[in-house]
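Dear colleagues,

As part of the handover before I leave the project, I'm documenting each prediction I ran so the next person doesn't have to rerun anything. This entry is a single chain, and its sequence is reproduced below.
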Amino acid sequence: MSTVTPANVAAKFRSLGITVTVKAARLLCAQAAANNNAGLVDDIVEMLHKDPPSVKVVDEKAAAEWVSRVRRDPEAVRTRVLVVFSAKEFPKYTFNTARSCFEKVTAPLSMSGNANDKMTVMRERFFMVHQRVARSKLFLRDANDRPELSRIESLCGSTGSKVVLGVLSTTQNGYVLEDPNAFVPIDISSAKILDGMFTEGSIVLAEGYLEDGVFRATLLAQPPAESRTASLQALGGTADLFGGMPTPEITLLLNQYEEEHSDAQMFFFSEFQLDCPQVLERFDVVLKGYADMPPELIVLMGNFCSKPCGAASVQAAFGALGDTLRRYPKIVATTTFVFVPGPNDPCGNPWPSLPQPPLPRFMVQPLLDSLLDARVFFVTNPARIRYCNHEIVVFREDLSSKMRRSLLLPTATNQLTKHLVATICNQSHLCPLPLLVRPLHWCYDYALHLFPLPHFVVVGDFCAQYCEMHEECLVGNPGPFNIDFSFFVYVPATSQVEFCGAK
């Protein structure tokens, strides 16, 4: 951690036209050292930039007041500890290739896009991955033994081995590698295939040479994922792609809140089928065990019914859930409940595209009537949650089975979970499947982007529990609760996941 000196403090305040006395500068240095926070002065400067003070000379009293103001703001903490977002609340950014930066899109978006919106889907995915790969250590220009990342259009007339980034597609004549400006037939029969799951539309790195108009690949790999730390450093605080980023002073307060509540827990359930009597019975067992230690958050993912059923049946099922929860008033009073629909849940569309809308309010009204004072959110699929300074993405999809059915190239069957997690992070996308396999609303494809990688991605997959770390991103599946009553508990303070079961 860099040391804060009185000279540094004076220089930073001078940029605001404020003069700091020597004693005030020493006080700020002492406070920064005592709190192990070299960014304390920056937080104060940021606060004053938004709310300029009336004085131009800062003494010890004013400096102490500003430190106190930054460190303690109960109302700000209370409202920002746990924030839940649906897809339409996510900010949309696109990568401007001319300026090499992300720019926020402010134009209204449509759920039914046009042909241009469909083409934009893969173009935006490609540019998001390309800007990340271009600064990878694999392609550092100051290293003589490093390969150079080439464009597909530059292959014509070139000789020797080249590395290109492109979208892998299939035609009647074989595979094709394409980017927004060009395409080339690719022969992968002799290529070494590295870890990952490759489907139609996957963005891949290919190494090889051009021969007779065909790119003969010797190596095919996923684009390397970038750690969250490196992505944030590259963005430089210019874009909040996740949404709801707190100000620096609020960030400091949230860090302190998390330290004081290091035992906070979050429960995640998938395939929470309310029409199965055993589901509510086992959920009651879980609630009874934590009645005196309420979790911070309970996330329940669909499908909420085991088979198609009418509105009356859905209402009765949620009414029964409300009756179960009311038996535990302490949990209802302190825990936030989030409901994420499953692929087969009745969300107003018989063929739901992603992002999937939340369950209709009239269907869940009996539950809301039972929990009038509780924090209950019915959100889209996927959804985002910001707890203090932790970013969490929740996605309900039978992803592993669909990925296996869509594979273009063989994958080691004994490490499917590892390959799936790596593919999600490498592609920077929650659902790297062909549009024909998993339809989506073209204008809202950005809601499935994973850049920068969040702290935790919860995939409600219909398979056994798993949890893998990839480039500082934890990806886990709580397992189907309706089958073996499995779920998991996440502790944000330690980034630990505990597999559980209601036996």
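The longest strand covers residues 162-171. Residues 488 and 499 are 5 Å apart (CA to CA).

All the best with the project,
I.
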